[in-house]
Amino acid sequence: xxxxxxxxxxxxxxxxxxxxxxxxxxxxxxxxxxxxxxxxxxxxxxxxxxxxxxxxxxxxxxxxxxxxxxxxxxxxxxxxxxxxxxxxxxxxxxxxxxxxxxxxxxxxxxxxxxxxxxxxxxxxxxxxxxxxxxxxxxxxxxxxxxxxxxxxxxxxxxxxxxxxxxxxxxxxxxxxxxxxxxxxxxxxxxxxxxxxxxxxxxxxxxxxxxxxxxxxxxxxxxxxxxxxxxxxxxxxxxxxxxxxxxxxxxxxxxxxxxxxxxxxxxxxxxxxxxxxxxxxxxxxxxxxxxxxxxxxxxxxxxxxxxxxxxxxxxxxxxxxxxxxxxxxxxxxxxxxxxxxxxxxxxxxxxxxxxxxxxxxxxxxxxxxxxxxxxxxxxxxxxxxxxxxxxxxxx
Length: 394
Description:
Blueprint: E1 18-24, H1 32-39, E2 44-50, E3 59-61, E4 66-68, E5 79-82, H2 86-93, E6 98-102, H3 107-119, E7 123-126, H4 139-153, E8 158-161, H5 164-172, E9 180-182, H6 189-196, H7 200-206, E10 215-219, H8 228-236, E11 247-251, H9 257-263, E12 270-274, H10 281-287, E13 290-293, H11 302-309, E14 313-317, H12 323-326, E15 332-335, H13 340-351, H14 354-368, H15 373-386
Parallel strand pairs: 1-2, 1-6, 2-5, 6-7, 7-8, 8-9, 10-11, 10-13, 11-12, 13-14, 14-15
Antiparallel strand pairs: 3-4
């Protein structure tokens, strides 16, 4: 049995405590700290339902194409159960005030939405969809998909928007503004910031990277849509004298790994550090001058949040969901997806002057500080109040 922190019980007799049931596919490293914070809130009694627990032990990750075992605990700090059928979810729904579900991608989630509708339990939906990453498609396919989404969305009282592009997705499918609430996609900023402090120099020494040379970092799954090969191509085109002879460091594994290694076999300034666990990432961000995510059709890109929390300048594309809310010329650059020349220009802008990249990193850390779990909890409680599930603040 996993350790569970005790539920905080309000001392005021008769105080209303809302029973919130959350259904998500599996324990997710980005969500675990947030769920712990919600569970400690005096106004909410949280129960989390997982469809499986595969991420809590070593497993083969399709995206990394490697066995992964996360080094942080994903389930301590909140009440949780595993469900394998919609009947089990329905039983829990009879004992809850509000049902919060992460997406509609599994049959259990879709049946649970219908059950909540029939039981008149209000539903809050949170997903990662954007028009760029998940387009409806043309012609009949698009018509059918929009009809399908309408049938899903009619079950939802409110939608917890992770950012501007996600909000636009719901609005484009006819969801009224009064049903849209902000719950920004965030990471544990404080943990990343604290772990990164003073760790960059040690990380450079550990990985054998010379002091004084800038570091361009890519960290994540080597997927085609994340475009790591475009970043390599852009770095080949850099004026190495103007950009102070930078390293290009790849952290991760995946389908493009063999190709990347082959394409860079003649380059002594490219380094591959392999898969690195959650606890190792803050020092890697801290040693880097700029983090680049040249993705196309990226719903968000939480690695950008991580880098910003560690005080690293960032470059992303206009097809990364995070760009609309987090990335501008103060913290780095946002460039058109698939545009190598624009990526080259952005890298030059950030790296040509050491003071510029450092200033962008400070600005990034300041900005991400207000895109945090505190805003998530405030947004969740605002949504609960708006749908009538929680009393308005006195």
